[in-house]
Design a protein that fits this description.
- This protein has eleven helices and eleven strands.
- By secondary structure, the chain is α/β, with parallel strands linked by helices.
- Helix 3 links the parallel strand 1 and strand 2.
- Helix 5 crosses helix 7.
- The radius of gyration is 20 Å and the shape is globular.
C-alpha cells in the first residue's frame, strides 16, 4: 500500500532522476571512481532536536547530543522544499527529537504534501491528542511511525523514561478514529516496537495490540546499542532481533561487516535543525557537514568537494568512517 502511495507522486522527471542517480551509483561502486548524476530524491529534515522523553539509547533523550537545541526555521524549510520539489519524492520529517514539539509541524507537513511529496514522520505518540489527530489527517501526512516499546506501562517505561503507555494508546485510538470519521486512508499508521531484552517477551502481545488498535502495520525493529562491546542489559537474547553477536571471549561485536558502498550517498541526505546537510541519519552530532542550506542550495552542496571526498572515502575505505560502524543498510 505504501509503495502505491509513493508511486502516484512520480512523474517522468522524477523517474529519470532515479534512473541516472542509480546508474552513477553503480558505476562508482564498480570502478571506485566517484560519479554523481541526478539530484537527491529523498530528504530527512529535522523539525526539532529536543524531546519530552529520556530514552536510554537516544542521544537526545540521554542528553549526550552535542548540538544546540532549536526548531527548524519555517522560511528556510519552505525554501528547501521549493528548490527541491521537482526531484524530491520522499520526505522524512524526523532525525533527532520529537517532531510534534515543533509548533509549526502541521504547516511543515502540509507544505510538502501540497508540493506533491510523500511525507512521513516518526513520533513517540505523546502529542497525538484528539485535536492534533484532526490536524494530522488534515495535513495530508502520508505515514506516521508511532514508537511503542512495550505492551504495559511497566515494560514500556523501562526504556521510554518519563513516557506514558496510556497516553500513547489514547493517541493511537484518536488518530484511528479521526481517519475513520474523515474516511481517509492517510496517514498509514505503523506501530514500531524496538526489540530489547526488557520487552522481547511481548512480541506476540504487540502484534495482538496492533490488531486491536487497528493500525495499518506493526514493525519489529532492532536497536542500536552504543555501549555494547562488553555486553548490555538491553541486548535481546533472540538473535534475530539483535545487531550484535557474542564472541568466545564474552565480548560482543557488530554482526555485519558492510561493504565499501552506500546507496544513500547517491540518493538521499539529512538536513539538521540548523540547515546543515549531513550524509545520513547515523551522523547524529553532524560531524560530517557537507554544507549549509542557509547560504547554499542542495544542488550546489550535492556535488561539492566535501561530498565528493566523503563518497570517495566510503567506496574505498568505509570501515574507517566512524558513523558507518553500525550501519545496517
Amino acid at each position: 500500500m505504501e509503495f502505491f502511495r509513493i508511486l502516484i507522486k512520480l512523474n517522468f522527471y522524477k523517474l529519470f532522476n532515479i534512473f541516472i542517480a542509480y546508474s552513477s551509483y553503480g558505476i562508482s561502486s564498480v570502478f571506485k571512481k566517484v560519479i554523481v548524476w541526478g539530484k537527491p530524491f529523498t530528504l530527512s529534515i529535522e523539525p526539532i532536536n529536543s524531546c519530552n522523553l529520556q530514552c536510554l539509547e537516544c542521544p537526545t533523550g540521554n542528553d549526550s547530543l552535542l548540538r544546540q537545541k532549536q526548531s527548524f526555521d519555517v522560511n528556510l524549510y519552505q525554501k528547501i522544499i521549493d528548490e527541491n520539489k521537482t526531484s524530491l519524492i520522499y520526505l522524512l520529517l524526523y532525525f533527532q527529537g520529537e517532531p510534534f514539539m515543533n509548533k509549526n509541524i502541521f504547516e511543515i507537513i502540509s507544505y510538502a504534501s501540497k508540493s506533491g511529496i510523500y511525507t512521513m514522520t516518526s513520533t513517540n505518540g505523546h502529542f497525538i491528542t484528539v485535536e492534533n489527530a484532526k490536524k494530522i489527517v488534515d495535513s495530508k501526512l502520508d505515514k506516521i511511525i508511532i514508537s511503542l516499546d512495550g505492551t504495559t506501562q511497566e515494560t514500556y517505561e523501562q526504556y521510554r523514561k518519563n513516557g506514558s503507555f496510556e497516553t500513547v494508546i489514547s493517541g493511537i485510538e484518536a488518530l484511528v478514529a479521526e481517519k475513520k470519521m474523515q474516511k481517509s486512508k492517510r496517514p498509514f499508521i505503523e506501530l514500531q516496537f524496538l526489540v530489547l531484552k526488557t520487552n522481547e517477551h511481548q512480541i506476540s502481545a504487540i502484534k495482538q495490540l496492533g490488531k486491536r488498535l487497528e493500525v495499518d502495520s506493526v514493525r519489529l525493529k532492532t536497536a542500536q546499542i552504543y555501549d555494547y562491546k562488553n555486553g548490555n542489559p538491553l541486548i535481546p537474547t533472540i538473535d534475530k532481533y539483535s545487531r550484535y553477536r557474542k564472541n568466545n571471549d564474552g565480548t560482543y561485536s557488530f554482526k555485519r561487516n558492510p561493504a565499501n558502498t552506500c546507496w544513500r550517498l547517491w540518493s538521499s541526505a539529512v538536513v539538521s535543525v540548523n540547515g546543515s546537510v549531513v550524509p545520513c541519519c547515523y551522523d547524529k552530532d553532524t560531524r560530517h557537514v557537507m554544507g549549509s542550506l542557509e547560504n547554499s542550495s542542495m544542488t550546489q552542496i550535492w556535488k561539492n568537494a566535501n561530498y565528493q571526498a566523503f563518497r570517495k572515502q566510503i567506496i574505498t575505505s568505509k570501515k574507517d568512517v566512524m558513523i558507518c560502524e553500525e550501519c545496517i543498510v
